[in-house]
Amino acid sequence: MTRKAHRQGGFVLVAVLWMSALLIAFLALISQNARTNAGVAMAITANRVDDLAIQSAIAMIRKGLIDWKKLGGEFDIGAAREAILNQPEWPQGLDFAIIPNRSKFNLKTLSLADVRSILEHRENVDPGDIDGLLQAFTDWVDADDNEMPQGAERSYYEELGMNNMPANIFFKVPTELLYVRGFDEAFNDIDVDGVFTVYGNHKGVDFGSASRKTLLLIPGMTEAAVELILESRKTIDLSKKSELALLLDAAVFIEVQPWIADDLEDFIYTIAVFPKSPYPPEYAYQEDVEFDPFWIGAETLNVKPLARFGDY
Description:
By secondary structure, the protein is α+β, with helices and mostly antiparallel strands. Among the domains are: 51-104 and 267-308, no CATH class; 125-188, no CATH class. Helix content is 45%, strand content 12%. A 4-stranded antiparallel β-sheet has the order 1-4-5-6, covered by helices on one side.
């Protein structure tokens, strides 16, 4: 074969490889566009007008909170909410709530002693069952499959038809707590998503924003004290320990003091969107959102399209 023939053969090979690369890239582009267009078409077909309105509302709330924070001063959620609702672009017929993460018990920072105190404060929990509940709790989150004397490991859940349980890692979402043996009965009247969180690192509860159900779970708290807190925080900042000390009876304050949220700053909020109504909503579209420390952007941690709203 001559040198010219070799050269022509080389050109042909390069041309073939180049065309193959272009073809692969082109097919990939077509495939990507097809998936994108199909995804958009499916979204437009599947979503109703109110679903699109909810997404618009969520975007406005996130941007509104960032803009409000840029104004400086204390973060007044009530004032920020009114400013967002008064925007002309706000979707008609919708309302929303902003729930600080610190208004909930943090499962990550609760010790077993804390869990025991909460269970002991529950009237529907038999004191004789508490040790077993705590051992089942421990078996669920520890890394091994060794069952404690009164606990529950994989064999127990398999007999109930619950395969691949427990996860043997810490809770990913609060509702996972209800799968732990006995906890569905212990919290049968509680929206666990509304009173517990798995995000952040705070300890204690913010009395200035916690729901009625959350406040009632606090060891030492009484019905009368909860009513006093709910009424007083309309005009007083009860996120401050000094204000709580002045408001509550001394005996009650001593008991609940360990449960008052620490001063650790938290940038996580639950945003709940629901139809506007004179009555409190039972369910809402909810997103757990974490804003960055500089309030430039936000990350969605969890989406709950239809979740119990609690009694905020």
